[in-house]
Design goal:
about 220 residues, three-stranded antiparallel β-sheet
Length: about 220
């Protein structure tokens, strides 16, 4: 049994935090739950106060999330945690988490960021990227979208904003054009996914026409970010 699972709620309970408070968890653990539900993740570097509380009270956090039909995923090596819908099999359970719609350019940008994250890891460096590099990469797919320059720029800007909203890209303080790539992105792509998608997008960037059954640049695909 995980040591955190052996700690009872009553042992951690604190005085009411506000009028009418009937909760039992300490304030730090409640903040962990809020961050996990707000998403997309908790990581030790960005959430230095939440990470120790999560590890300490992991069993309690898992129990609370299970009551909402959610799983807690923790990667201790990466020091990243997030939630996902539990596999409830035949049980008709409500879905709490929202799924983000990924466009063709969203997927292309995610793949590029994942590759840059891998390269930074190999050099034992922080994964930092310039906005100009992101825009340059996305222009490789301008022909595939079959749209005018203004329309393409709007889509590229929207893809960048989505990565920031989902905290995949975190703007560096004091910089208008430099971002750090969240380590949580490592958990979204397996090595097999990277190889398959890299080959596919390389062919598209080279101008090869792909069948709609493989990829449709004008069609939004649903995936979780």
């Amino acid at each position: 049994m995980n040591s955190s699972e052996s700690v009872s709620v009553s042992a951690l309970a604190s005085a009411p935090l506000f009028p009418g408070d009937t909760g039992e968890l300490p304030v730090e653990t409640r903040r962990v739950l809020v961050q996990l539900l707000a998403g997309p993740s908790i990581d030790a570097r960005r959430h230095g106060k939440l990470w120790p509380a999560l590890i300490r009270d992991e069993g309690l956090v898992r129990a609370r999330l299970s009551e909402l039909f959610l799983d807690l995923i923790i990667d201790r090596d990466l020091q990243v945690a997030f939630t996902r819908q539990a596999d409830t099999a035949e049980l008709d359970a409500p879905a709490l988490l929202r799924r983000a719609q990924l466009t063709f350019l969203d997927s292309a940008l995610l793949l590029f960021l994942r590759q840059r994250l891998t390269a930074a890891d190999a050099r034992v460096e922080r994964a930092v990227v310039a906005g100009s590099d992101l825009n340059s990469h996305l222009t490789l797919y301008e022909r595939a979208l079959n749209t005018d320059k203004a329309g393409f720029n709007r889509r590229a800007t929207a893809a960048l904003k989505k990565m920031m909203q989902q905290k995949i890209l975190i703007k560096l303080r004091g910089s208008d054009d430099r971002y750090e790539i969240s380590p949580a992105l490592k958990l979204l792509f397996s090595p097999e996914d990277i190889a398959r998608l890299s080959a596919l997008y390389t062919r598209i960037a080279a101008g090869e026409q792909m069948s709609i059954g493989v990829v449709d640049p004008d069609e939004d695909s649903e995936d979780a970010v």
